[in-house]
Amino acid sequence: MKITWLGHNCWHLEIDGTNVLVDPFLNDSPTAPVKADDVEAEVMLVSHAHFDHIADAVSIAKRTGAMVLTNFEISNWLAAEGVARDHAIGMNPGGGYDVKFGRVEYTIAHHSSSFQDGSYGGNPGGFVITGEGKRIFLACDTAVFLEMKLIGAPGLDLAVVPIGDLFTMGPAGSLEAIKLLGPKKVLPCHYNTWPPIAQDAGAWAESVKQHTNAEPVVLEPGGVLEL
Ligand code: NI
Ligand code: MN
Questions:
Q1: Neighbours of 186 (CB within 10 A)
Q2: Number of alpha carbons in the 13 Å side-chain half-sphere of residue 115
Q3: Which among 178, 98, 10 is positioned nearest to 89, based on CA atoms?
Q4: CATH code of residue 92
Q5: What is the pLDDT of residue 29?
Q6: Of the ligands numbered here, which is closest to the C-alpha atom of 193?
Q7: How far, rounded to the nearest angstrom, does the alpha carbon of residue 135 sit from its chain's CA centroid?
Q8: 167: CA distance to ligand 1 center in Å?
């Protein structure tokens, strides 16, 4: 499994040869190493309706024909925007969907979810992805929540957690999240995109080593982790 950070909460995962794209925010992202036209996707995951997660979803879904897994309200919006109706899969927390490399489950998140015009974007969520015999969790935009204990119970090879603070949990909250999730490795995200969410990822990694059993991995945008 190959995991590439495209800045913010945008990730490209190669799982059993399938291109998976998470929360496409590229053309207007100050830290994205690629543009929306440069990425491949057969499966796309969209966690909630905020622009910094959904901005390039429609154009990439139309160009690639990707199967988009997201919440029910965003799936309806994608279809209204011209994405093929049977390629926009509407989920809700607790639900899962079988894909060719394995399975994707939609989890809860403590956050909000509205489109740019203020209209309702459904419940925000995160994703548990199972494939290549591995289990990974992308928390996406959220505070720490106690049910992370349940998400981690079957074992996690990797957790991806926000550390930016202000809009999501910050470094201190992420340590509590990591303790509840108990992953083997942990990647930080949703920081350093703009000044209000600037964080010292090196200092964060030191705290993770000191206070949890997880191995922190800090990437630069464009950086790759192989699992
Ligand atoms: Ni958000
Ligand atoms: Mn966000």
A1: 27
A2: 14
A3: 98
A4: 3.60.15.10
A5: 98
A6: 2
A7: 14
A8: 7
Ramachandran assignment for 192, one of left (phi > 0), alpha (psi -120 to 50 degrees), beta (any other): left
Ligand nearest to the CA of 114: 1
Q: How far apart are the first and last CA of the chain?
A: 5
Q: Tell how far the Cα of 142 is from the centroid of ligand 2, in angstroms.
A: 9
- Computed over every residue of the chain, the mean pLDDT equals 98
pLDDT of 166 reads: 98
Which residues, in sequence order, are bridge partners of residue 161? 188
Residues 93, 111: contact at Cβ < 8 Å? no
Number of structural domains, the chain?
A: 1
Give residue for tokens 């630069």: 220
pTM of the model: 0.98
Q: Look up the domain containing 58 and give its range.
A: 2-226
CA of 71 to the centre of ligand 1 (A): 14
Q: Give tens-digit pLDDT for 69-107.
A: 999 999 999 999 999 999 999 999 999 999 999 999 999
What is the C-alpha to C-alpha distance for residues 171 and 18, in angstroms, rounded to an integer? 32
120 DSSP 8-state letter: B
Q: Which ligand is nearest to the CA of 109?
A: 1
